[in-house]
Amino acid sequence: MQLRLRDNFIAGIIVILPVAVTLWILIAAKDAINDAVLNPLLKYIKPYITNVYIEYGVKAALLFVLVLFVYLIGLATRILFVRKLFSSGEAIFFKIPMIGKVYVTMKQMSRAFLGERRGIFKKPVLVEYPRKGVYSIGFLTSESKGEIQEKTEKRLVNIFIPTTPNPTSGILLLVPEEEAINLDMSVEEAMKLIISGGVVTPLTLAEN
């Protein structure tokens, strides 16, 4: 009886958690857009608004324009000419001290977290961290080169260990290649496992 209650409770969490996380992200995005874009724009036309319903309508119209603007930018970058123009602009942007480095890093991180196959995450691995006998899931990003590799006896690989439930932060480990255990799961499956805090496992994904 207790086992059945536990299984039903866990099944309920598995169903509710994705919905709750999705709603939380949507609410956070709404608040961020409100504070950063809609409210600053709205203050210029607020003196001309006569009631709260018109204000809601104006906000909805501004949000639609913003979404349309982002969509058109995405559409434009898929056109070869605009893509080349954008690449030329990026090349100039890369040369700006500090800002260029931050831009490159954020672009690579975006590719990785949005599931682009050629992102910085090559494959998920298992490493003993933070101590022997305790394992963490990380992502192989590259092989160590240059000064770091020259001053170590073993061949090292760079592994990013993301945090839960926010995988955009984490730590970088330089691990001997033979100590990184390769996993068969995909980058997307490993990311879901990390974000869910272990609730959504590759086995769970296969069953669903």
- Run of helices and strands: HHHHEEHEEEHH
- Going by CATH, the architecture of the largest domain would be Roll
Q: List the quaternary state of the chains.
A: single chain
Question: How would you describe the shape?
Answer: flat
Low-confidence stretches: none
Key attributes of the depicted protein:
7 helices, SH3 type barrels, 3 domains, 5 strands, about 210 residues, alpha+beta, flat, five-stranded antiparallel sheet
Summarize the structure.
The protein has a 5-stranded antiparallel β-sheet, covered by helices on one side. The chain has helices at residues 2-45, 52-77, 80-94, 99-113, 147-150, 187-195, 202-207; strands spanning 123-128, 135-143, 156-162, 170-176, 181-182. The relative contact order is 0.08.
